[in-house]
Amino acid sequence: MNGARPSVSGPRVPVIDLFAGPGGLGEGFSALEDDLFRIAISVEMEETAHETLRLRAFFRQFAVGFVPTTYYEYVRGEIPLSELQAKHPGEWEKASREAWRAELGVAKHSAVRDRVDEALGNECDTGEAVLIGGPPCQAYSLVGRSRMRRVQGAEFESDRRHFLYREYLKILADHAPAAFVLENVKGLLSSTHDGEQIFSQIRSDLRQPGRALSDFSPRHRNVEYTLFPLGEPKRPHLALGDEPAAEDFLLRTEELGLPQARHRVIIVGIRSDRVERARRAFGPLLKAAGGSTPLTKVLHGMPSLRSGLSRESDSDSAWEQTIRSAATRLLRSTRALTEGMADELERVRANVRTPVDKRGGRFVPTTRSAPLYEPSWFVDANLQGVLNHETRGHMRDDLTRYLFASTFGRAEKRSPQLADLPQGLLPRHENVQEALAGNLFSDRFRVQVAGRPSTTITSHISKDGHYYIHPDPLQCRSLTVREAARLQTFPDNYFFEGPRTKQYTQVGNAVPPLLARRVAEVVAKALGLLQCD
What percent of the chain has pLDDT over 70? Predict the structure, then answer.
């Protein structure tokens, strides 16, 4: 939109976002009604995630409905970034100050402290800020722990990522924000170090962050926090104030109505002088939504695309022939197919056609991209299409497996296990027999089943797409970055910078913004910014 724009009214509570990734947690806080929160500073170390974070910070410099046409021209690929910067130097400078590229734990804390002070400005000493974020999860995730122990052995125990949460403690002890939100993977609940439960230590340290930092001189040595879970309590009979169970801090997003089965630990801390008022806002805060949201409601409206052929010449006709041949091969398989699968394969063989938008791209023009779930959250009419919607190339054998998985999912309403695959489709991995015996990952080719929420979108989606097969056999492909972003509930005008692999990683590592917005609402009620229900 061109023309004069009104100034953006300043939100009342500044937010410090650590380990921000592409900004999903911050997006939820900044999107809460009435501009209650503003992102004062976000910190991220990875280059392309930081570029995404900075671009979104630029987007937020403008009032809703007054984002300049140059933003849309840039994300559509019509103008270079330099032109966007040149036309809006003031807003770009503010965005560049807000989104800081730095590696916490490596950068000197004095520099971090100074940058936070600068970002908070006159609010530095009021104690009204909110700290959000979560340390990198590789040292806590179940898959990450297994992989690192196999590869690194004893080095796993000394991995500094176990202790990056101490950088979080330093901000608490230095700036004493009124509240904090710490997010991490489910594996945090069971992770150990030197035989000790990490989660128990983290809870203890978060309650008294200044005292937990024996080798650090914070400004607020005695600041204290009370920790609140957001999930349904496992022991509802306990009186208010009793110690929550560790599992109470685990949120299951599919139970909250989000279109993804994502299980994450979220801890909300309220500073001791604000606790009595805050207690009225808790108990539990995020209640079950009364039903899950199937992924097809969120992917509705996305332009259909075909996959590509890798390690050979790719063309529309070659792809169509590949899919027809794959359907024929499966129909002739010695493995007995169910009637439903056979019908699906016949349908594919008869109807496979290259979609109008072929393999997509950075921008796919369309006026019919609205999902059936929260359309007002996702859709931006000024965008006039879909961003980051480009397919990967796959080898012929993998496309046959994808076709099998997607037709199996349609017919059987579940994703196949390796044992369900015909013998000729089993991958040539050394540990396939172990997987078939149920001792290892047995769902190497996982289709997203149409009538259910998606499985957890993780950074693994950047690897090969085998765990993220699209439910439509006629497209026979893995999810695009935009489809993964929708399942993560990023608005459609949220552009992910960098090469496609990096885009996938950003999306997989992020906090779903719609989950973050609901958490932000809880924090706003706890701080008296919104009325409790």
Answer: 85
Q: List Cα–Cα distances, 19 to 2, 266, 445, 448, in angstroms.
A: 35, 15, 31, 29
DSSP 8-state secondary structure symbol assigned to residue 63? -
Q: Is the pLDDT of residue 8 over 60?
A: no
Complete DSSP assignment for 421-456: S-GGGS---TTHHHHHTTSS---SS-B--TTSPBPP
Superfamily of domain 13-47+103-292+512-526: Vaccinia Virus protein VP39 (3.40.50.150)
Whether 12 contacts 527, CB under 8 Å? no
Report the amino acid identity of residue 228: F
Confidence of residue 217 (pLDDT cuts 50, 70, 90): confident
* Cα-to-chain-centroid distance, residue 108: 28
Q: What is the pLDDT of residues 279-290, one digit of tens each?
A: 877 765 576 666
Query: Look-up: residue for tokens 């609205």?
Result: 370
Backbone angles phi, psi at 235, to 5 degrees: -130, 75
Give the residue extent of every domain in the chain: 13-47+103-292+512-526, 295-509
Both tokens of 333, joined, read 């398989």
Region of poorest pLDDT, from 79-83, 148-152, 447-451:
148-152
Scanning 332-422, the segments in alpha helix (DSSP H) are: 339-351, 375-378, 396-412
